[in-house]
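[retry 2/3] Ferredoxin--nitrite reductase (EC): previous attempt timed out, resubmitting with same input.
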Amino acid sequence: MCWYYCPKRKETCLLLAFVKTMSRYCLTNLILSFGWLSIIRRKPMSVLETAFEKRNKKQNKVETIKALKLPMEVHVKLEAIAAAGYDALDKEDSAYFLKCFGLFDKGEDFMLRVRIPIGQLSHRQAVRIGEVAKKYGDDYIDLTTRMQIELRYLKIENIAKVLQELQEVGLSTFQTGVDNPRNIVADPLEGLAFDNIIDVTPIVKELQSLVIENTEWISALPRKFNTGILGSLSNSCNIFGHDCCFALANKEGEFGFNVYLGARVGIQSKDANVFVTIQEVPSFFMALLETFKTFGYRDNRNKNRLHFLLQDVGVEAFVQEVKNRAGETFNTAGQTLVQSQSIALGANKVLQRNGKYAHKIIIPSGIFSGTDLIDLADRAKSFGSGDLRLTYDQNIYVVNLDKSALDAFESTTIFSKYNQYNNLYFNDMIACAGTKTCSFGVIPNKPDAIEMANFLKSEVAIENGMVRMNWSACPKGCGVHGIADIGFEGCKAKDDEGNKVDGVHIFMGGKITRTALEAKLLHKTLPITEAKYHVKYLLEVYAEFKQRGETFETFENRYFSANYSYQALAFYTKINYVLNDKLGLNTKLKLDKTPKTFKKENLEIFDFGLKLFKLLTNEKRYVAVEDFEPVLVQARHIKRNEVSTLNPNVPAKLSEVIYMMTDNDKKTRAAVFSELLMALKAL
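[retry 2/3] Ferredoxin--nitrite reductase (EC): success.
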């Protein structure tokens, strides 16, 4: 089978393989009668048509499965599927169709993803989810970065009953997997926070009504489609990290949204140069989905997110097609108003517009239980409205708490249980599922994130700060490590004995501001047991030099990136790990508050070398240094093992590294940190 663009029907269509057996005459008549102008054309192709035809000469295996039946054919048979048991489950249903309704086969049990628009849960809904988790899912709940809940360990015989019980309280699981418009995220404090300029809740409800549980849009897209809409000043939902992003903006005095398009793992969205009013959001959104449905690639699933189409045709051409389909011109972009720093400045107790309070409950790594969800919902009902708001960072707000009831709420058992995690290292931590529940996971991940946060809490005390640490268990990046202050991607590493162990790549410097940036790789393939020390040394610098209330994101931009190369920072954490945690020398290389090396790697190497020589020998390497060059009036010639000779606790290899860093001759002096880092691996 092949996919072709049909201009007459304005959509992609499937040309069945049986037409190949027809005569040339019959095929030509079929083509003409159905308007297959992608094959026989009367006018030049547009750039989107050209890109589509180039990429859709073959279809991927999932598209072949999708052609077998309609998703609703499976949905209406859920009771029969449940009754027949796991062994009778059709392969295509397991591989694809059940995922259209949030059901993911995990090998004799299922994970169920529950759609919760903007993470807003009523007391009744929260209690029902908790009851379902206890009754059918081992009392286990995962909170996700799309403000949803995942139930696990569901047996096939119970799946129809679970969906029915959730539906009774207005909860849907439709289109929470595979090639569908996914849950729309926004500020968890929509309509409540002082910085919430536009309450987008009505907009999200309208968008959902257009596509969710609408058979025209179930499994209609080439790939998943994530949407975020932010009507607040603080970026509380990673607004630039979705396929479609509506970011709060102002155009000539009117509040609305600037549009950004095409984010994916490792890449932030692009400015579409479009401003839409509140009223224009639905028409733009639907035209956008139609355009992606029509021209989105259906060959290579690794390269068929919206990002790749934009990459080939350009944002301008794509947006013009959206405008044509919407029948509107739309304004050019206004001024984006989103900022990265939380308006609450790290506080977990927030005063609402209505005089009531929202209290953020920190759920480490998003690991929760049905029992605790019921308890929290009941306490929310006792002291407030009973409403809960799930957050993008896998936590929960209890909202609309009466001021007079705050002390009583904070005295409850459920509050005390999770209040121990109310600190800088847990507050803004994200961790996706790891090896325990995800087949793609390379490391356990969630336990690793919790262990590191506890370690850092005990080692580096920081007040009035904020650091976002995100963990992904594999390169797919579901933990959005790429936009973190400090991000971790699971991998396999080798310990000192050469054994394969759980490891991480460490990233730093992700930004979620209006100039959203991906984090840069700092260290590759570190054992997790070592990685925590590298992070510790970075955070010690943050604690020492940060300004009052300064977030790590702002600090990284002001201090780390402005003063040091990332290669220098990688060496800084590595040498301190070697000196203190490997050799036990109890001495640290320090960074300067105002360094004069100007991010030049050769100067940084020489500067660090001089400091290490002095630290480990208590002597100066040179009598005098001027402009990062030794004054050789009376040159001090040393041997490669000089530092080891002066300090027997220093291994010869480390002495040689310091020699390379401070060599008299610039031509033979180490010029890049990479060779030094390789040498340190031998220690």
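[retry 2/3] Ferredoxin--nitrite reductase (EC): The chain has five domains: 2-65, 77-197+358-420, 201-223+232-336, 423-563, 566-683.
[retry 2/3] clearing retry counter.
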